């Protein structure tokens, strides 16, 4: 089968389409003929040698999500039939024509989504939904989402709105805040440079009537983490999901004490199979029906063919994207 192979660590030029052995499904697994997949920050990090795939996953083929047709069934896999459309997350190897995964780690693709749209769903909607669950998000709460125009940010914004919350966000690009309003963002805070984060708590007071944010989905880390603490409500929950803005920051611990804040960290990729099955089931129950009804939708920045994987990596790395960079496979 064809796959995007990381031939050595470096820039997008190290990626090559190569013929590699097709994976074989284990007893409870399905082999999926991947019709579309998408890029994630983890793929960029893996390509540049800063994020090794978990043990047991292909080290030189990136790709954390897929949508496609069931092509073969393991000897004990009876949940799906050949030809069923499924989508899900894996620990690696999805930038390829075929991928294997446990039969319970996939969900049916809603009939209103074409392949490009389906490939843009799993990683960001599962990440956003799982983070909101971990943070104990409830209807009526105020949620702040850093990097609101990102793939995860736009998924989170839509889920928050659909489940009865109010979504607010930050971005370094004012235009992304405006565009995110079409997906349910109530208002946004533009971060022209990190120093303006000192004003984040003023924004929080303004938009929440002095209450502060009940939940913060921190996709950026660095100074965003520190500034968020000041903008949070009593007993607020911050969940750290990404660190594009840095892994270190100066934190006022007394904010955490006084407000009795909960600080949570999360990663999807390194979780056990059982944990992935559990979050996929929660996603199937609460999010997939919203996708099927069109209440929420994948937001696609751009679509590339697998052969154009280098250009796709350049596009994501530009930080100009609004939503997902999708790779199609014919
Ligand atoms: N924990 C997990 O399991 C998990 C799963 C998926 C994703 N993630 C993380 O979640 C974050 C979002 O992922 P995604 O795929 O949705 O990202 P994405 O679509 O690539 O968007 C990321 C956006 O972040 C902003 N950004 C980049 N560098 C920044 C910096 N130094 N300071 C502030 N903003 C910056 C950029 O938008 P603007 O500059 O225009 O605002 C960029 O477009 C990433 O950090 C990713 O690693 C974590």
Give the count of structural domains.
2
- Give the class from helix and strand content and strand pairing: alpha/beta
CATH level-3 fold name of the largest domain: Quinone Oxidoreductase, Chain A, domain 1
Count of strand segments: 15
Q: What is the rounded Rg?
A: 20 Å
Q: Main beta sheet, described?
A: 7 strands, mixed
The ordered string of helix (H) and strand (E) elements is EEEHEEEEHHEHEHEHEHEHEHHEHE
- Supply the CATH class of the largest domain: Alpha Beta
CATH architecture tag of the largest domain: Alpha-Beta Complex
Cα distance spanning the termini: 12 Å
Relevant CATH superfamily of the largest domain: Medium-chain alcohol dehydrogenases, catalytic domain
What molecules are bound to this protein? NADP nicotinamide-adenine-dinucleotide phosphate
Poorly predicted runs: none
Helix count, per DSSP? 11
- Give the overall shape, derived from the CA principal axes: globular
In which range does the helix fraction lie? Answer: 25-40%
């Amino acid at each position: 089968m064809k796959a995007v192979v990381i031939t050595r660590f470096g820039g997008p030029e190290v990626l090559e389409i190569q013929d590699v052995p097709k994976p074989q499904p284990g007893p409870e697994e399905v082999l999926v003929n991947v019709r579309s997949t998408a890029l994630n920050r983890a793929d960029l990090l893996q390509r540049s040698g800063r994020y090794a795939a978990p043990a047991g996953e292909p080290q030189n083929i990136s790709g954390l999500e897929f949508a496609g047709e069931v092509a073969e069934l393991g000897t004990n896999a009876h949940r799906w039939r050949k030809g069923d459309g499924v989508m899900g997350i894996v620990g690696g190897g999805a930038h390829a024509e075929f991928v294997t995964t446990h039969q319970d780690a996939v969900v049916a693709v809603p009939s209103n989504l074409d392949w490009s749209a389906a490939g843009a769903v799993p990683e960001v909607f599962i990440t956003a939904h799982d983070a909101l669950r971990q943070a104990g998000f409830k209807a009526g709460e105020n949620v702040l989402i850093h990097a609101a125009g990102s793939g995860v940010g736009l998924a989170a914004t839509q889920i928050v709105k659909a489940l009865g919350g109010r979504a607010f966000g930050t971005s370094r690009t004012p235009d992304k805040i405006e565009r995110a309003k079409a997906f349910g963002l109530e208002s946004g805070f533009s971060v022209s440079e990190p120093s303006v984060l000192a004003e984040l708590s003023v924004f929080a007071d303004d938009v929440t009537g002095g209450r502060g944010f009940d939940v913060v989905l921190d996709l950026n880390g660095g100074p965003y983490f520190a500034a968020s603490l000041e903008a949070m409500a009593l007993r607020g929950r911050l969940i750290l999901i990404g660190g594009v803005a840095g892994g270190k920051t100066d934190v006022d611990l007394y904010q955490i004490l006084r407000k009795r804040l909960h600080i949570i960290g999360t990663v999807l990729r390194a979780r056990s199979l059982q944990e992935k099955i559990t979050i996929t089931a929660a996603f199937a129950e609460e999010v997939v029906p919203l996708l099927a009804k069109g209440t929420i939708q994948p937001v696609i920045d751009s679509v590339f063919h697998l052969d154009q994987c280098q250009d796709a990596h350049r596009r994501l790395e530009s930080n100009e994207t609004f939503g997902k960079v999708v790779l199609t496979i014919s």
